[in-house]
TrEMBL record:
Keywords: Cell membrane, Lipopolysaccharide biosynthesis, Membrane, Transferase. Residues 34-209 form the 3-deoxy-D-manno-octulosonic-acid transferase N-terminal domain. The keyword Membrane applies. It comes from Pokkaliibacter plantistimulans. Belongs to the glycosyltransferase group 1 family. This is 3-deoxy-D-manno-octulosonic acid transferase. It is found in: Cell membrane. It comes from the Bacteria. Involved in lipopolysaccharide (LPS) biosynthesis. Catalyzes the transfer of 3-deoxy-D-manno-octulosonate (Kdo) residue(s) from CMP-Kdo to lipid IV(A), the tetraacyldisaccharide-1,4'-bisphosphate precursor of lipid A. Its EC number is 2.4.99.12. It catalyses: lipid IVA (E. coli) + CMP-3-deoxy-beta-D-manno-octulosonate = alpha-Kdo-(2->6)-lipid IVA (E. coli) + CMP + H(+).
Amino acid sequence: MSRALYSLLFSLLLPAVLLRMAWRSRRIPAYRRHWSERLGKVASAMPRQAVVVHGCSVGETQAASVLINWLTEQHPEVPVILTHTTPTGRARGEALLPDVARCYLPFDLPWLVSAWLDQLQPRALVLMETELWPNLVAACQQRNIPVSLANARLSERSFHGYQKVRRLMTPVWQALHWVGCQYRADADRLLQLGTPVSRTEVVGNLKLAMPVAEAIKLKAAELRQQWCEGRPCWIAGSTHPGEEEQVLDLHIKLLQRQPSLLLLLAPRHPERAREIIELCQQRQLQVVRRSLGEQPGQSTQVVLIDTLGELMLFYGVADVAFVGGSLVAHGGHNPFEPLQMGRVALVGPHMFNFQSLLEELQPTGRVRQVGDVQALEEAVSQALLEPAQDGLEGAGVMAAPGHWIAAILAQT
């Protein structure tokens, strides 16, 4: 597929994309906001000549927050703009970096990204993990705006997907000014796809350097006292369709062992709240909703966390965490957040999106992979007997902050 064909197909699909956003806004009102930003309009207050860092959703935004904090500490004179694709990412960005300018990244169509770049005239663009947009990168290259890929990761599955669109993506890989990879396996795959050898290096995972805000720790302790005083509590975070049923059935079995056990259920997509409420009611589980401000009582068995940007908080409320997307073949989600809050992180068999991180953290005993839902039952029961541990802030080997910043700002 050529970039011209990609742009044509994207143009034809844009009305459907907008309709889908409008439909999703019925459940998530945040999708109704800032549409002009997605169409390339820049607010007059947005700083020019800034370093633009793109944190697509929650995970990328969290990694971006570490990088932005380093950048502002070392170069306070350089303005920064944090961009997003999803409302959940934007909400997380507002919580982590309230003083940083932010907007949505425009749709990746030539006339939208060109107009956007001409208005902002950014000093550099930093894309997080694998958030690569062909027209955006090409437009930056035409304007001599260096583009870096920071905290880069690439699963085996994504690697094979990119191989199928080599004609479209090879110019993108070759245009990158610097590629900072999380692990050696990520670098090896990216090099095979075409990133420049002299500009690709392994520098570690930014999320390993992410501190936990003291306010989050205090709020978690407060909610823990209010909700879980005298009762055990576990959380299933970032769950997907097909997982909630397994988690709820598992919770029923665990209640037979510990009748006071409380489950915090946090679906990856909070707009699925009604569907999950029905699953709870079918199983005669007493459930309350976080988004409605409902408080769990002694008879409450499930709290549905159907809000944006609070997952790390609730990892700190629970005693044990299961990280979803891993009982079904989704590829898992990053298990690092519960570890930061001092909790054991349990994951299912499908963790191919985070295999390198899993291999790094499993030897610590803080991340435990189970083969199926039956094994998860035993793992949750065992972990509930263990005391919480300190967080893993700063764990892992990483290049110094100055190395990251120098690599990104070089040639600007």
